[in-house]
Amino acid sequence: MPNPKLEELVLSQEEAETLRRWARRPKTAQALALRSRIVLRCARGGSNTEIAEELGVQRGTVAKWRSRFVSDRLDGLLDEPRPGRPRTITDEQVEAVIVKTLESAPRDATHWSTRSMAAESGLTQSAVSRIWRAFGLQPHRQDSWKLSKDPQFVDKVKDVVGLYLAPPERAVVLCVDEKSQIQALDRTAPILPMMPGTPQRATHDYTRHGTSSLYAALDIATGKVIGSLHARHRAIEFKKFLTTIDKEVPDDLTVHLVMDNVSTHKTPAIQRWLLAHPRFVVHFTPTSSSWLNLVERWFSELTTKKLQRGAHTSVRALNTDIRAWIKTWNENPKPYVWVKTADQILGSIARYCTRINDSGH
Fold it and tell me: Rounded to whole angstroms, how far apart are CA atoms 1 and 17?
């Protein structure tokens, strides 16, 4: 039975067509597109809670835009004007800038700048800048992303995240990976120290003195790291690292290894070693999913705190620095706490895929 407390929402043919156009237009403002989808769904019936769960939004969001539409119809879905100086730019001009920013590019560039958009739209650069800020548009920025195509993606995510959230008893969970080709770089001139009003300065060019490869195993419970440095990163070196782990971890504990699918982790020699050491259990992360391996977060700290601004005149000096940093880390280790469940991660990915499909991507 329909909920008698819900305000009746009936669409005219013209309103339904407008809402469908707003919801489907490629790359349109997502706030208005979401409001349109909410109203269209409300018109089909159902409680606010049901609709919120279906669209992946809060119940209050559904209630708000249902009420706004019943009260003010299509105008209720638009952002209300704020008090202040009367506007000199019309809604049509704002919409034209947004649509052109999202759905086109200038003839001589891959993206719009405030200058080129101002010339195209007839507005000032500051006006274009205000419109972009108001709608969260940043044409000068580009983020990278990659969706795993692993056919076992779901199963592997559940397996690894399950280990993080509920580690087995009498066992240690180690996130394992290698940071290969770490370069021993020395600047071509001395680094100038920081002074009041002047940051530390280093030459943009450098001299290479060779490379080193670091294997690391991060204990998710304690945050401690087992590290091993090698000149190369082949299966031979990885096997030596597994032997190091075997010596470091007490014999009465099962060892769960979380690692990626790189070929050196799957050679016949490694397979034979694992068969000979049955207390080792391997959990592979999905392809293109390094974010799922917590040791990558530790590698990031090593890079930003020690390697990025370091200067080393030899591989030996580089290795000494890395070993000292690992020792210091292990004196006061900080474990990384995983909080999201596998279902939350998979749900987030599903919502993102739905969103980009609805946007016409």
Answer: 27
Q: How far are the Cα atoms of 246, 249, 329 from residue 288, in angstroms, in the given order?
A: 28, 29, 28
Neighbours of 3 (CB within 10 A): 12
Stretch 236-260: mean pLDDT: 92
| Distance of alpha carbon 97 from alpha carbon 109, whole angstroms | 17
Phi-psi region of 108 (alpha: psi -120 to 50; beta: other; left: phi over 0): alpha
Within 56-90, where are the H helices? 59-72
List all residues 6 or more positions away from 179 whose beta carbon is below 8 Å from its beta carbon: 213, 214, 216, 299, 302
Give residue-wise pLDDT tens across range 124-174: 999 999 999 988 899 998 877 777 888 888 898 899 999 999 899 899 999
* Residue pair 216/323 in contact by the 8 Å Cβ criterion: no
Q: What is the mean pLDDT of the chain?
A: 84
- What does the DSSP 8-state code read for residue 256? E
User: What CATH topology corresponds to 154-189+204-343?
Assistant: Nucleotidyltransferase; domain 5 (3.30.420)
Q: Which two tokens stand for residue 72?
A: 């003010």
Report which of 145, 99, 149, 146 is spatially closest to residue 120, judged by C-alpha positions: 99
Does this model's pTM top 0.70? My answer is no
Residue 145 in tokens: 């992303």
